[in-house]
Amino acid sequence: MATLLLNRIDVPLRSYDLELSLELCSTLALVGPSGAGKTTVLRAVAGLLRPRAGRIAVDEDIWFDGGNGVNLPPEERRVGLVFQEYALFPHMTVRRNVEYARKHRADDYLERFGIAHLARAHPAELSGGEKQRVALARALARDPQVLLLDEPLSALDAHTKTTVRAELHDLLAELDIPVLLVTHDFEDAAALADHVSVIVDGRLRQSGTPAELVARPADSFVASFTGANLLHGYAEPTGNGSARVRLADGTVLSTADAAHGEVVLAVYPWDVTLAATHPDDSALNVIRAPIRSIAELGNRVRLTVGSITAEITTESRARLRLEPGQLVYASFKATGTRVVAEHQPREAEEREGRASATR
């Protein structure tokens, strides 16, 4: 399989400079908040903008090299790009959209993506999932070395999204080319990609498998972005390698991590158990508070209890008869907490880096 390499890409933007390096040979998701620089990375790879410096290559094929003055135009880069809104030609049929690249006949791709029966239809007649399959078929009909996906699921409603996400996962798993997708949704990234890189203000904050990011978030931003509750408090060592953390409201929690001083605890919603009465189990951490809100997400339910969010099954909610305003106990084990570094604004990071360089 080919390898896409972005080496020290530097792109000046309005509020900051995008500076990063990436290497991928399978599917990688670049995740981050709006304005983080995700789509800028795709545009640089596709040749739609020119970086100030750096190098972009696929194996031995160099697409951009700032030091040697190489900058291939988009039409000379074998890239398949699927835009956020799919960008299908409304006046063309599905078949003509797929054949637009003039690289391969459409029949194989119409069959491969299960849209042969839509060959004569126009985009206005298609569902969101069907439009996505047409856009993917058109991108791959160019015989690309790299596939780029810009927010591939954001244009779909919640009902359609779950089904299309599963379909897209299966389609990407069959490809033998690097796939770089960008999204602001960590759940989508975890479902679609082998590896995830978190980008904030143009710089990579952490990279790894989805499981690694959840198990060991680099800082409070990554922890929050991957879905964790963040609890701020003051930690005091217990003498056995763990610590007790006192929150602002006086609640005392235990963590299996060593810590001292001001800390941030990350607790994931699925590690929180809810009960109508005080739990009689091994959980050391218990928060007693009323249910502030309840949101159903398919077969799961997210409940906000005091300062913490818990995630349980719909069956558990029905069994416990949980309703807004009800006083409940949210509990989690000390091993279910993670002490994470406080996120520093970019200016503070740069100051710390300059200070370190002078020591």
Q: How would you characterize the overall build of this protein?
A:
This protein is 25% helix and 35% strand. The protein is an alpha+beta fold and 359 residues long. The strands form 4 sheets. A 6-stranded mixed β-sheet has the order 7-8-9-3-10-11, sandwiched between helices. A 5-stranded antiparallel β-sheet has the order 2-1-4-5-6, with helices on one face. A hairpin with a 4-residue loop joins β1 and β2. It is globular.
Whole-number mean pLDDT? 88
Assign an overall shape.
globular
Tally of extended strands?
Answer: 21
Main β-sheet, spatial strand arrangement: 7-8-9-3-10-11
Strand residues, percent? 25-35%
Number of helices: 10
Structural class: alpha+beta
Distance between the termini: 43 Å
Question: What is the radius of gyration?
Answer: 24 Å
Q: Poorly predicted ranges (pLDDT <50, ≥5 residues)?
A: 348-359
Largest sheet entry:
6 strands, mixed
Percentage of residues in helical conformation:
10-25%
Give structural attributes:
35% strand; 359 residues; single chain; 6-stranded mixed beta sheet; 10 helices; disordered C terminus; 5-stranded antiparallel beta sheet; globular; alpha+beta; 21 strands
What's the arrangement of secondary structure elements?
Layout: E1 4-12, E2 17-24, E3 27-31, H1 38-46, E4 53-58, E5 61-65, E6 70-71, E7 79-82, H2 94-98, H3 107-112, H4 128-140, E8 146-150, H5 158-174, E9 179-183, H6 186-192, E10 195-200, E11 203-208, H7 210-215, H8 220-225, E12 229-237, E13 243-247, E14 252-255, E15 261-267, E16 273-275, E17 285-297, E18 300-305, E19 308-313, H9 314-320, E20 327-332, E21 337-340, H10 346-358
Parallel strand pairs: 3-9, 3-10, 7-8, 8-9
Antiparallel strand pairs: 1-2, 1-4, 4-5, 5-6, 10-11, 12-13, 12-15, 13-14, 15-21, 16-20, 17-18, 17-20, 18-19
